[in-house]
Amino acid sequence: MGDGWTMRKMWVGAGVAVALGMGFVMLLVVGVYLVAGNVAGGAGGGAKRLAKGSVPAAYQPIVQKWGNLCPAINPALLAAQLYQESGFNPRAQSAATAQGIAQFIPGTWATHGIDGDGDGDRDVWDPADAIPSAASYDCSLASYVKDVPGDPTENMLASYNAGAYAVIKYQGVPPYKETQNYVRVITTLEKSFAAPTGRVDPSEQAAGAIAYAQKKLGTPYLWGGNGTAEQGGRFDCSGLTKAAYESVGIELPRVANDQYNAGPHPAREELLPGDLVFFSDDLTNSRAIRHVGIYVGGGYMIDAPRTGAVIRFDPIDTPDYFGATRVTEDGAKALPTTV
């Protein structure tokens, strides 16, 4: 949300509001559409590296190491699985008795759990064991279906969801809606954990999101605000970004640290209007993100800063700048509703 925004700079003056007024923002809106229509290509190929801070610092070395265990997986894919399963929560436990950061059920853990850190035990609650075990299990599944035609990673993910027998039987991802959705979700989420290796395509919806946020300038901040009539049309930071993208048909999760995974992550020098920009006191951990705004160009964003302030333009180049996300419709749809 946005109440932790007190460490950021105060409102930079009425002169900025004039300089970044209606005409300027509308030029940016038009520019986004032009760029979105003309930029070709996207992220290039090559070995995947984890995006900055996308995995909590405590787990980043483990994910990076074990994500390269076999050709069917990579660090970004492994990170996507962990995020989807538990939101990187090592104490997570589901109603179906799945346990730990990788959400192993006891029977699967008994067969496939390994002593990842070499301390003499296999502890499902210890990420140093559970993350290597998840990678090892993925690679075991990949080996079971290695002779099946098609993409080996998709076949591995389908085996994880439906079992290797089903993949072998159907000679590929089986025609089960749940399994096909699982494969789509993980492979889409993978892109939000991978550092881009080339230019990131712009979003055509970005211009509409900016236009929505612009109309809310001057609206008082409300912690937990979603802009409802009962709340007087007020927002907090992630409530504003959620509503802005909802206005163009993209449903984002409610909190900022989940919105970070709604697409790939352009570098600071590659920002385009409509990108979400994030701020944190811990620049090594996307789960610690505490503020989000919508970039409008020129080093400024529209954001709902904090209690006592109004929706306004603020600079983004401050010490707590974490990074950015170029929202995609597929990326947003892939995000879990609860983590």
Descriptive report:
- By secondary structure, the protein is α+β, with helices and mostly antiparallel strands.
- It has 13 helices and 5 strands.
- A hairpin with an 8-residue loop joins strand 3 and strand 4.
- Helix 2 runs antiparallel to helix 10, helix 4 (75-86) crosses helix 9 (177-193) and helix 10 (206-215) packs across helix 11.
- It is elongated, with a radius of gyration of 21 Å.
Number of strands: 5
Helical residue percent band: 25-40%
Strand percentage, roughly?
5-15%
Along the chain, the helix and strand elements come as HHHHHHHHHHHHEEEEEH
Give the biggest beta sheet.
Answer: 5 strands, antiparallel
Radius of gyration (Å):
21 Å
Architecture blueprint of SSEs:
Layout: H1 14-19, H2 22-38, H3 60-66, H4 75-86, H5 106-112, H6 127-144, H7 152-162, H8 164-170, H9 177-193, H10 206-215, H11 237-246, H12 256-259, E1 276-279, E2 291-297, E3 300-303, E4 312-315, E5 321-325, H13 329-334
Antiparallel strand pairs: 1-2, 1-5, 2-3, 3-4
Task: Give the tags.
5 strands, five-stranded antiparallel beta sheet, disordered N terminus, 339 residues, alpha+beta, 13 helices, single chain
In summary, what is this structure?
With 339 residues, the chain is of the alpha+beta class.
